[in-house]
Design goal:
Chain lengths: 115, 115
C-alpha cells in the first residue's frame, strides 16, 4: 500500500517570502499522480497543483511550484511571494494511475503567514 | 454552477442512532468518495464508488455504510456500530476512474458530533 508522509506539522513564513513544504511517499508503482490540496479555515479542499509521474518537468501554477524528485520519492511545494490568504492546512496526496481513482493523503502541514 | 453539495453542515447523533449524511453532485462525475477528517490528521477514505450500484470499502469502513443508486448521489450512513463518529466528513467526486489525472472535487463538509 502507498503511504504519504508530511514531516512538518507546522510551518510559518513572512508575507512576501518563500516557503517550501515537504512531502515524501512510498510506492512500488512507476505511474501515478501527485497533488497538493489547500484547506483554509473554511475547511473547503482546494486543489493547488498536480504532477504526473511520467513528466520530468516540474509543475507550476502562478506562485506555486513543485520540486518532483521521482527517484527520491519526494514532492515538495514551493510558495513564492507568500500572501496572507495562503494561510491554510496543506495536504499532499498520491493517486495510482493503473489501479484506481482513490487518493492517499498525508497528515498535512499547517502554514501560518505572518504580516 | 456545478458542484458538490453536502448536507447538513452540522449534525448531532444520539447514542445508538444511525444518521445519514447527504452528498449530491451535478458535475456528471463517475466516481464519488467519502473521507473522514480528525483533528491533526489527514483525510482517511471510508468508502468510494466508481460506478452506479457499485462501491468499495476504503481504509476505515467499519461502522459506516453507503449506497450508490444514482450517479449524482452517494449518501453515507454512520451506524451505531461506529463508536467514535465525531469528526468532519468530506465528500468528493472525480470524472473518471483508473488512469485519470483529473483531481477530486470536494464538498464543503459535514461536522458530526455526539450528543
Amino acid at each position: 500500500a502507498q503511504t504519504v508522509t508530511q514531516s512538518q506539522p507546522e510551518m510559518s513564513v513572512q508575507e512576501a517570502e518563500t516557503v517550501t513544504l515537504s512531502c515524501t511517499y512510498d510506492t512500488s508503482e512507476s505511474d501515478y499522480y501527485l497533488f497538493w490540496y489547500k484547506q483554509p479555515p473554511s475547511r473547503q479542499m482546494i486543489l493547488v497543483i498536480r504532477q504526473e509521474a511520467y513528466k520530468q518537468q516540474n509543475a507550476t501554477e502562478n506562485r506555486f511550484s513543485v520540486n518532483f524528485q521521482k527517484a527520491a520519492k519526494s514532492f515538495s511545494l514551493k510558495i513564492s511571494d507568500s500572501q496572507l490568504g495562503d494561510a491554510a492546512m496543506y495536504f499532499c496526496a498520491y493517486r495510482s494511475a493503473p489501479s484506481g481513482s482513490r487518493l492517499t493523503f498525508g497528515e498535512g502541514t499547517q502554514l501560518t503567514v505572518n504580516p | 454552477d456545478g458542484g458538490i453539495t453536502q448536507s447538513p453542515k452540522y449534525l448531532f447523533r444520539k447514542e445508538g442512532q444511525n444518521v445519514t449524511l447527504s452528498c449530491e453532485q451535478n458535475l456528471n462525475h463517475d466516481a464519488m468518495y467519502w473521507y473522514r477528517q480528525d483533528p491533526g490528521q489527514g483525510l482517511r477514505l471510508i468508502y468510494y464508488s466508481q460506478i452506479v450500484n457499485d462501491f468499495q470499502k476504503g481504509d476505515i469502513a467499519e461502522g459506516y455504510s453507503v449506497s450508490r443508486e444514482k450517479k449524482e448521489s452517494f449518501p453515507l450512513t454512520v451506524t451505531s456500530a461506529q463508536k467514535n463518529p465525531t469528526a468532519f466528513y468530506l465528500c468528493a467526486s472525480s470524472p473518471q476512474g483508473a488512469g485519470s489525472n483529473q483531481p477530486q472535487h470536494f464538498g464543503d463538509g459535514t461536522r458530526l458530533s455526539i450528543l
